[in-house]
Specification:
12 helices; FAD-bd; D-Amino Acid Oxidase, Chain A, domain 2; single chain; FAD/NAD(P)-binding domain; 6-stranded mixed sheet
Length: 371
């Protein structure tokens, strides 16, 4: 019997995880990724909650623990860089593993690469579906037909745009920008400590990561401008303007951002759709329900991949029921997170000094509960 063929668009976190589980449930997955290779670098992500048992079932949990960052504490600084509070980041009550996004992506890819076809340096340009399948046009490869298509291509999903409509219909701006830049290894003194300085409307984090420290900028711009994802010069100027009067190591870290040829920069948004599927096309991970700031994106992607593969296996030949069951399961996880993201953004990056005092007081309470 012919195995159903599934095209997965995106080889970040959700795509390889789904390919792994589909291959073990009687499907033939193909993963297409517009980048020429797996992306290196990137911020640290936390594998936690429902992703822990998924990683355990895949047999990759020991690998992830071996690749974990050494980050064990968060130190909060006042505007002059003086320490005001230190919080533990590990707890026996809730097992988590912090790894770089690149390391997690690599581990998932290696788990799936012998079971799935991977096409790099390519992407989809058109999807034409009917009752029995989806005709896919690629930018480089020859056209092909698949039984199902999964958009696992992130916040700015091409699949979502082609099938559901333009991004502006589903993305909600949190009023914040996020930017990161890698630093030299000697940029940090303690590889077990993450340091955070916050002033009204701006947060600056120095993260030790595993081998390459990162400077992380999260801020509200005084004069938000229309976002152009390709205008690196504008991104650099926006960060420089936002942190011009911030003390501590801000001048040094901003200079590193300005000197980097392609630092990361993006508005922080959430993505909400009334339905994650249309016909034989379904969305997964950030393409379906991105939630900035919470640090749950990778874990939700892994949990979603497992749930989608499980439901497709449980409903052979009935993708509509499988998609509905998968969406119902994941919305129970994602919904509460999206509802509190606005409050969290105000707590993480307060607008005023009294707001900062409240944030720090909350931090002290959290620190006592984890101690």
């Amino acid at each position: 019997m012919k195995k159903p063929e599934v095209l997965i668009v995106g080889a970040g976190i959700a795509g390889p995880a789904l390919a792994y589980w589909l291959s073990r449930n009687g499907f033939r997955p193909t993963v297409v990724e517009h980048a020429r290779q797996l992306r290196s670098g990137g911020s640290a992500v936390v594998v936690k909650g429902p992703a822990i048992p998924v990683a355990d079932r895949m047999g990759i949990l020991p690998q992830l623990r071996g690749l974990a960052t050494r980050n064990r504490s968060l130190t909060l600084l006042d505007p002059d860089g003086r320490r005001i509070l230190q919080l533990p980041l590990t707890s026996d009550k809730a097992p988590t593993v912090e790894v770089t996004r690149a390391d997690l992506s690599e581990v998932l890819y290696r788990s799936a690469q012998t079971e799935a076809e991977f096409l790099f340096d390519d992407t989809v340009t058109a999807l034409d579906q009917d009752e029995s399948g989806v005709d896919v046009t690629f930018r480089r490869s020859a056209p092909r037909r698949f039984d199902l298509v999964v958009g696992a291509d992130g916040m700015h999903s091409t699949v979502r745009r082609l099938v559901f409509g333009p991004e502006r219909q589903f993305a909600s701006d949190l009023g914040l920008y996020g930017a990161t830049v890698p630093l030299e290894p000697d940029a940090i003194e303690d590889p077990t400590e993450m340091t955070m300085l916050t002033v009204p409307n701006r947060m600056l984090v120095l993260h030790p990561s595993r081998t390459t420290p990162l400077a992380i900028f999260t801020f509200r711009a005084a004069q938000p401008a229309p976002h152009d994802r390709k205008n690196i010069a504008l991104h650099k100027q926006t960060v420089a303007d936002a942190y011009a009067d911030v003390r501590w190591r801000a001048p040094e870290l901003v200079a590193a951002f300005l000197d980097h040829p392609a630092p990361f920069f993006d508005p922080l948004t959430t993505v909400r759709l009334p339905s994650w599927s249309r016909g034989r096309v379904v969305l997964l991970g950030d393409a379906a329900a991105a939630t900035s700031l919470l640090g749950d994106g990778s874990s939700m992607a892994m949990a979603g991949a497992y749930a989608l593969a499980e439901e497709l296996s449980a409903h052979p030949g009935d993708h509509a029921r499988a998609f509905a069951a998968y969406e119902s399961r994941l919305r129970r996880e994602v919904g509460p997170r999206q509802r509190r993201v606005g409050l969290l953004s105000r707590l993480m990056v307060p607008r005023t000094r009294p707001g900062l005092a409240v944030r720090n007081a909350v931090g002290r309470v959290v620190g006592r509960t984890r101690a």
